[in-house]
Amino acid sequence: MNETLYVASSNPGKLRDFDAAAMVFDVEIAVLPDLSDIPAPEEDGATFEANARLKAEVYSRARPGLLVVADDSGLEVDVLGGAPGVRSARYAEDAGFDLTDSEDADGRNNLYLLRQLRGHPRPWAARYHCVLALARDGAVLRTAVGAVEGEIIAEPHGAGGFGYDPLFWLPGLGKTMAEIDLATKQTLSHRGRALTALLAGRTLDTHGER
């Protein structure tokens, strides 16, 4: 019987990324049961790893016996000193950016990012960064990291993906992350790469580190 990893997220994009990587290892991906009933922890860590560990501990403690995967991921832009980093999902909100400038959080974050980049010389080197934490019963078993390198462009292109994908340029493909097809994106995904690193060469039927 296949091992199941329960993801502490119901985000469809994240689940697709994880599922594509997990299939290679004959591992099933599922949303953590009754996820919405678990109070979400405050993600106040200074690093992706700190937040991933915190979430993995909280959610696995709430669902004893299950192998739980939690991620923290975001965009790092070199000329901004690694910002937005761990605050990627709340970048515009943190700054009190005018909410009328866009009707959704992703749009506001993208607009605010471009405003912060004004005056900085290009290219604007950046990366998507992800840390995964695997836990059971409140104890983190291991962590893994995945990343994809690219650049930020001055205008959004493409309607696919989510987050900063319309601004994240992949020089090797000549497209943004929002312009590539799903199969290609899954081969490049920072979350997929992190999950691959987490699973590669390891078994999961354990209550301790291996």
Q: How does this structure look, described?
A:
It is a single chain. The radius of gyration is 17 Å and the shape is globular. The chain has a 7-stranded mixed beta sheet. It has a single domain, classed as Alpha-Beta Complex (Maf protein). The chain has 6 helices and 7 strands. With 210 residues, the protein is an alpha/beta fold. Strand 1, helix 1 and strand 2 form a beta-alpha-beta unit.
For the secondary structure, the number of strands is 7
- Classify the fold: give the CATH topology: Maf protein
What CATH architecture label applies? Alpha-Beta Complex
The number of helices is 6
Following the backbone from N to C, one meets helices and strands in this order, namely EHEHEHHEEEEHH
Strands in their spatial order, largest beta sheet: 2-1-3-4-5-6-7
Question: Which parts are unreliable, with pLDDT below 50 for 5 consecutive residues or more?
Answer: 206-210
Keywords:
single chain; 210 residues; alpha/beta; Maf protein; 6 helices; disordered C terminus
